[in-house]
Amino acid sequence: MVILPLAPFRITYILMNKNFTLLISLISTFLISESAHSQSWEVYDTKIQLQSRLIYDEIDLLSETVRIGKTGKELSLLSSDLRPAVALVGTEIYQYLEPWILVKGPNGIGAFHEYGQQVLPLEYEKIQTYFNMLLASKGNEYWLFQRGRNKTTYLGELDEAKITNTGLIIIRKGNEYSLPLSPNPDKTFELLSDNDGEFVLAKEASGFGLINREGDYVLDPIIEMLQHTHGNFYYGYNQNQYLLIEGNDIKSNIRYNSFHKITFENDIMLEYIHGKLRRVMEGDGILLDDVGMTAVNKIGKDLYNVHFRDARIGLLGKKGWLVQPMLEVDEIKFGNEGLYPAKSKGAFGFVNSAGTWVIKPQYAETTLFSEKIAAYKTGLSWGLISSAGELVSDPIWEEIKPFDKGLAIAKANGKYFLLNTYGAPLNTEGFDDIYRTVDGYFMVEKSGKTGLLNSEGSEVIPTEFEWLRRERKNFVIVQKEGLTGVISEAGEIILPLAYEKILVDWVNEQIFTKTNYVPTVIQTVEEPSKKNKKGA
């Protein structure tokens, strides 16, 4: 690895003796052949002041502090001044899972800590990571590295091993499970099941229980049936009682118990009293207690259509009714801005939270309201209506996306347009595609070229680049004819279109530019037949 000074890199040889000419020529040829395919990187600050020049094939910015340099088949972890600090042995970065750098080599993958310590050799097929440990495997053999102990332990030949989301290790050999990092590592279980909560579901001959992140029981294994629902909640059955249990780091709590039947299917818990549906349950108790229910259908996360014997249907949310039960409706969807798409006799309209039709069912399909405007579909085309049910646009569009800050993206005849809140297109000529950026700008494509519109739909960068990325205000990375540069939104050149690649690290206020680099070698040979003149 070579770190270049700020000045251009030149090698000058002044030969005073003919006998050295061949030697110097050989040295020069060697230097050129070694460096001709190298890549030069220039590092600027955010004021575009040159800080340094580097020679690497590639530079990867994995995080604010982790930078990787690659030259040939060599990888290096770079220091803060971008010099090689630690050789990473492998040939490519396999994955970066903070604080672990997984590196791939010809014999497998290994791991380095982001501070530079190699903790696993490059010989494994898979590596699972956690904050302070790694679980590595080759075939059915497993090893565990614990950073606190700075030690790798061989776990043996196993059928399965995994790290839970709380940092426990579950291993399985045959039909036996165990927790090698628990206070009782040799204890075996009939089942150990991880979930998105903070507790492991365990089963022994005596029953089911819950184990915390330290490997201790917080619910003794005495429950006849237990399964995870969501978060730290569990649904169980024991001694003819149905139970809703909440996990706790010290001792789990039974939040609800009943001798009446509770079912848990399709992610819905329902309680039946004397064979009739009576309650909709949630993790820690009763969500809805009402008579006359016949069915509950889940339509989304914490969203349910509840059906009644008298043909009413309501929309139930996590905190109660979003739409009161109403007649003459087949289904009610999640809504926005106080209006909910609802279907009746095959047509969609909108209802309010009281279960009253605000816009009568008359459309084949609708979207949610956004900025008091929704799209509706009749036949194969889409139009726009206001929240008062007034027509904003006739159905002439193939697609209409939601409004945001007064503009929507719509498609017609295979081309994309920006629409204002009156349903009028801002651009007379359609684009091949339009993408809304996170900061409200629009990237547009036409004939394979890319440009940029501002949040009001006005062109700020013409559609003439192969690609572009708006890093921040007045700093847009663009590529044209294979070369990359930076321009402002007014088209002013910040960095010329002369680079292969540009990387930006805003936290450390550094801009990395990559170019081809061929060192200049100058040979000055003075023939021995000529003598130096005095004073020369």
TrEMBL record:
<dbReference type="InterPro" id="IPR032774">
    <property type="entry name" value="WG_beta_rep"/>
</dbReference>
<dbReference type="Pfam" id="PF14903">
    <property type="entry name" value="WG_beta_rep"/>
</dbReference>
<protein>
    <submittedName>
        <fullName>WG repeat protein</fullName>
    </submittedName>
</protein>
